[in-house]
Amino acid sequence: MTLAPDIEVLARFGRALADPIRCRLLLALRDAPAHPSDLADALGISRTRLSNHLACLRDCGLVVAVPVGRRTRYELADERLGHALDDLRTAVVAVDADRNCPDADAEGCC
């Protein structure tokens, strides 16, 4: 496995966090590894939609799929990602209520 340059790593992390569903997935996996069916139920989304978001997070290098018998369990690729999510979640961010992030409505991923 090759380590990506710092800027690329941050950009991938940022793109992954740009979608609320992916944020919710990362926070769920921060708490504990989980199977897709459990994640879909917990997040209240279809398994197809969940699968697309998990594929994005895998492509970004943030989650890994771990075979467990006939099933697959997902977990954060590195436990330090959980700490980073906690740090980001608790950081104070200055936001003007009448302004949107320029890419807030953009779809897509890594």
Automatic annotation (TrEMBL):
Listed transmembrane segments: none
Gene3D superfamilies hit by this protein: Winged helix-like DNA-binding domain superfamily/Winged helix DNA-binding domain
HTH arsR-type domain segment(s): 3-99
CDD domains: HTH_ARSR
Molecular functions per Gene Ontology: cadmium ion sensor activity; DNA binding; DNA-binding transcription factor activity; lead ion binding
Superkingdom in the source lineage: Bacteria
GO biological process, one term: response to lead ion
Protein name: ArsR family transcriptional regulator
Taxonomic source organism: Streptomyces armeniacus
